[in-house]
Amino acid sequence: MKLEDIRREYLQDALSEDNLQDDPFKQFETWLEHAVASQLPDPTAMVVATVDETGQPSQRIVLLKHLDDNGFVFFTNTGSRKAQELKGNNKISLHFPWHHMERQVIVYGEAKPLPTSAVAKYFLSRPKESQLAAWASAQSRPVSSRKVLMETFANMKNKFAKGEIPLPDFWGGYCVVPTKIEFWQGGAHRLHDRFMYQRQADNSWQITRLNP
Fold first, then answer.
1. 10 annotated as a binding-site residue
2. Which residues contact 99 (CB under 8 A, 6 or more apart)?
3. Hey, how many other C-beta atoms are within 10 angstroms of the C-beta on 11?
4. What pLDDT does residue 7 have?
5. Within 10 A of 16 (CB to CB), how many other CB atoms are there?
6. Known catalytic residues?
7. Is 41 helix (H, G, I), strand (E, B) or coil?
8. Of 15, 36, 60, 81, which has the fewest Cβ atoms less than 10 A away?
9. Tens digits of residue pLDDT in 31-76
10. Do 186 and 124 touch, CB atoms closer than 8 A?
C-alpha cells in the first residue's frame, strides 16, 4: 500500500461569501444540523487540543454538549490531563472533522470553567451508568488492569444503589469562548474554500477568505 497514492477529489459543495452567515454561531448551527440530518456518526464529536507546561500539545475526542452565543461547552473530570493543562494555560482549540461532508470547523479560544450549577444539571441528566463511570474512573491516571477498573465500577454501583448519584467534586465543565472560528469546505483540485471569522473589540466578527 502506497500512502501517497491514497487521494480523492472533494466535489460535494462549495462555500462562498454569498452563502456565509454573518454570525459564526449561526453558521456552525447550520452545518451541525446538516451533519445530524446526514446521519454522520457522532456529529458532535470534536478534537480538543491543549498544551502542557513544556509546550507539548495533546489531543483527544470529546462530545460537544451545549452551544450558545457564549461558546462551545464540554464536560470532563477535572483531574484529567486536559483539565490540568487548561489550569496552566486555558488557550484551546476544537476541531470538528466532518469528513463525509467534506467539511471542517476549527475553533480557537479560551476555556472558561462552568459554574457548579451548570455542571450538576448536566451530570444529573446523564444515564446512571455514565454517572457511575465518572465516579469509577480517575481519568488519565494509570490503572493496573481493566479488571481493577470494572471492580471499582461495581463498587460504585453498590455504593450508590439507592437514590440519586451525587455530583463528584472532581467533575467539571468548560465553555470555550472563541476568538476565531474557521469554516473549511473541500474543493476540486485541492482548491478548498476557507473562511475565518475573527472576533473584534466590539464583539462583531470580521470574515476573511483564506488560501487553501
1. no
2. none
3. 11
4. 85
5. 10
6. 190
7. coil
8. 36
9. 999 999 999 999 999 999 999 999 999 999 999 999 999 999 999 9
10. no
Q: Can you list the residues of the chain whose pLDDT is less than 50?
A: none
126 is annotated as contributing to ligand binding: yes
> Which of 89, 79, 124 lies closest to 109, judged by CA?
89
Measured over the CA atoms of residue 193, residue 210, residue 44 and residue 65, the dihedral's sign is: negative
> Quick check: helix, strand or coil at residue 170?
coil
Residue 64 CB coordination number (10 Å): 20
63 is in an annotated binding site: yes
Taking every pair of Cα atoms in the chain, the longest distance, rounded to a whole number of angstroms, is 60
- The count of C-alpha atoms lying within 13 angstroms of the C-alpha of 142, restricted to the half-sphere facing its C-beta, is 1
Q: CA 165 to CA 119: how far, in whole Å?
A: 14
Task: Find where cell 461532508 sits.
Answer: 101
What nine digits make up the cell of 63?
462530545
